[in-house]
Structure to design on (157 residues):
């Protein structure tokens, strides 16, 4: 019996350019506007409307809203569309940058809540309480040590 050698697997070569940059700004804008139209505003205890999250209701990939723009390309995280369309910037994976949600809500697509920072800085935001309530009074203290500060609702009483 003849030995059959296994078919070598094709290696995927990583494209250094982020997927969000491989589409036109017009296409990126159209994709983002479609997602924004379907999104809902999540109200919280904050009086300032800018602190309310805009929640994407679409498909998730690894817990993050993502959009398919082509059958042959990787999905694009909606937060990357927000950064490109609204702020004119995108995270560069080679420099270990990522889209960071100041509100700690992966589904939020409000431009004011999304920044680019290092993967390490983003990870250090996990577990941030942002506000600590005084046990003896009604004062709430901003205990977030991050810059820019995390955006979290006041704790409920």
């Amino acid at each position: 019996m003849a030995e059959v050698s296994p078919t070598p697997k094709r290696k995927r070569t990583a494209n250094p350019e982020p997927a969000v940059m491989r589409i036109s700004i017009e296409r990126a804008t159209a994709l983002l506007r479609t997602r924004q139209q379907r999104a809902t505003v999540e109200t919280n205890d904050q009086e300032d409307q800018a602190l309310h999250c805009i929640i994407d209701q679409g498909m998730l990939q690894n817990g993050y809203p993502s959009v398919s723009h082509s059958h042959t390309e990787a999905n694009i995280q909606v937060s990357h569309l927000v950064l490109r369309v609204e702020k004119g910037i995108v995270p560069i994976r080679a420099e270990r940058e990522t889209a960071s949600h100041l509100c700690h809500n992966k589904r939020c697509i409000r431009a004011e809540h999304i920044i680019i920072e290092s993967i390490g800085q983003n990870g250090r935001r996990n577990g941030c309480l942002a506000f600590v309530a005084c046990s003896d009074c009604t004062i709430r203290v901003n205990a977030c040590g991050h810059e820019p500060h995390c955006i979290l609702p006041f704790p409920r009483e």
User: Anything to note?
Assistant: The radius of gyration is 20 Å. Strands lie at 40-42, 53-55, 60-61, 64-67, 76-77, 97-101, 114-118, 131-133, 140-142.
